[in-house]
Amino acid sequence: MVNYRYLGNSGLKISEITYGNWLTHGSQVENDVATQCVRAALDAGITTFDTADVYANTKAEQVLGDALKGERRESLEIFTKVYWPTGPGGPNDTGLSRKHVMESINGSLQRLGTDYVDLYQAHRYDTETPLEETMQAFADIVRQGKALYIGVSEWTADQIRAGAAMAKDLGFQLISSQPQYSMLWRVIEDEVVPASKEAGLSQIVWSPMAQGVLSGKYVPGKDLPAGSRATDSKGGARMIERFMRDDVLERVQGLKPVADELDLSMAQLAVAWVLQNDNVAAALVGASRPEQVAENVKASGVTIPAELMARIDDVLGDVVERDPAKTAEGAPQTRVV
Ligand code: NDP
């Protein structure tokens, strides 16, 4: 079963393996398979589920809400996000303005079939809305009981520091940061993690398996596995492209002996690796099939000895990205409509 960790400097416990439905629910996988994945997660002791209004243009929230129907609400932690446009593209259908935040939470709650979310996250930093306006809107949402806690995603260290200080002044806390983090993408280690520790946030990390690449199933020179994200023309193939390079895939194959030594699959090794970082509260893992969920949860509770952590660094060498300047890479610098 899955272990639990506190989220930031709060009393909220979450399952250290959290199930996320980006690119899958409402898109790559049929609804019955989505439901089976959620069921497999619940059966394995996962209580924490992450989605966003923008995933499959709101369908992912709906599919997750339907799949969780009938579950005891108090036994779940449901996370969603606001920022990216989901409406017909009006000037206020995007960003972190008070208008968009206050309207978006209502849509998310309706689709998820719940009166409140446990964590409401700013999906990116909005460079055009004053931070005070966003934080005041979040404070009001917390006071209305529509969200119990607030987090951010892909914010830089400076943005986290400023947001956390302002939240404190308004009487609530930022408790989490949701960045990309894996053996191949370590850009948060130098700046985001220290700033988060200081401000009382922990990380809920996305794509811990580099979207499936670290499972070792993409072998250079071989056909892509049928049904995998790299073959998903609805969006997955484009998203995983960054890691689909022979030099990366070859290095990843070199991790197999390390996984064998720990009696883990490569997928489990990848998930266990992010959980070795004590500022990580959860690995946010996706799945296109229920068997993957059952496999991945076994990464919970694994300790990777220092000697093998060092070996992983040696095997991956310079294909690992560590440049802190790449934090929030691709985050829009102006409002997207
Ligand atoms: P992962 O790195 O865990 O990749 C998951 C994908 O890898 C699965 O959908 C599956 O794809 C493949 N996979 C999973 N388990 C196995 C296995 N055991 N063996 C082989 N292949 C496997 O994470 P995601 O990229 O899916 O992201 C996870 C979550 O993070 C999202 O659902 C979302 O909640 C969050 N996220 C947040 C972002 C943000 O901006 N805040 C951005 C992106 C994600 P397949 O079978 O199709 O190959």
From TrEMBL:
InterPro entries: AKR, K_chnl_volt-dep_bsu_KCNAB-rel, NAD(P)_OxRdtase_dom_sf, NADP_OxRdtase_dom. Keywords: NADP, Oxidoreductase. It comes from the Bacteria. Residues 16-315 form the NADP-dependent oxidoreductase domain. Belongs to the shaker potassium channel beta subunit family. This is Aldo/keto reductase family protein. It comes from Isoptericola chiayiensis.
